[in-house]
Backbone:
C-alpha cells in the first residue's frame, strides 16, 4: 500500500516470533553454561545455608575478578577432586592462596583441615539461595576477614551428595 509516497512492507509475524524464540533459546543456553544449581549437603554453612538448600552458582564470577573475603564459593575438595564444597572465603594471601571456612566450625571440613587452596580450585561464586525460600547472598563487604564458610555441595539432585 502506498500512502503519501511511502510504501509499507508488512513484516511477517512468524519471522518476528522466530527471532524471539531464537533469542530466548540463546539466553537459556548462555545461562545454563554460566550458572549451575547446587544442593547444599551438611551443616557446615549453617545458619547461612542449611542441609538441603538449593543455591545458584555463577561459574564465571571469577574470570575477571579475584574472590573477595566474605564470598561464598563452590570449590573442588583438595583431598577428593571430584567432590565439591561450599565455603566462605575467610582470608586471601597472594603467596599462599585462599583460606576458606564453614560458617559452622564444629561441622565444617575446611582450610583448618586441608590448608590454603589454589585460586584455580574455585569453581564459582554462590549468588543466591532459591529453595526453600529465596535469599540474596550478602556481599563480601558485609563480612569481616574472620567470617566462616559453607558446607558440602551436591549437583542439585544428582546421584548422592558430594
Residues:
Amino acid at each position: 500500500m502506498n500512502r503519501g509516497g511511502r510504501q509499507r512492507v508488512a513484516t511477517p509475524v512468524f519471522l518476528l516470533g522466530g527471532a524471539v524464540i531464537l533469542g530466548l533459546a540463546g539466553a537459556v543456553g548462555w545461562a545454563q553454561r554460566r550458572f549451575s544449581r547446587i544442593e547444599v549437603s551438611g551443616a557446615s554453612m549453617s545458619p547461612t545455608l542449611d542441609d538441603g538448600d538449593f543455591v545458584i552458582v555463577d561459574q564465571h564470577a571469577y574470570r575477571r575478578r579475584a574472590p573477595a573475603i566474605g564470598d561464598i564459593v563452590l570449590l573442588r575438595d583438595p583431598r577428593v577432586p571430584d567432590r565439591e564444597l561450599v565455603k566462605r572465603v575467610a582470608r586471601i594471601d597472594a603467596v599462599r592462596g585462599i583460606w576458606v571456612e564453614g560458617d559452622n566450625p564444629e561441622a565444617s571440613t575446611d582450610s583448618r583441615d586441608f590448608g590454603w587452596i589454589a585460586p584455580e580450585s574455585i569453581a564459582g561464586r554462590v549468588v543466591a539461595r532459591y529453595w526453600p525460600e529465596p535469599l540474596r547472598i550478602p556481599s563480601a563487604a558485609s563480612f569481616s576477614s574472620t567470617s566462616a564458610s559453607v558446607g558440602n555441595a551436591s549437583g542439585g539432585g544428582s546421584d548422592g551428595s558430594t
Notes: Residues 154 and 161 are 5 Å apart (CA to CA).
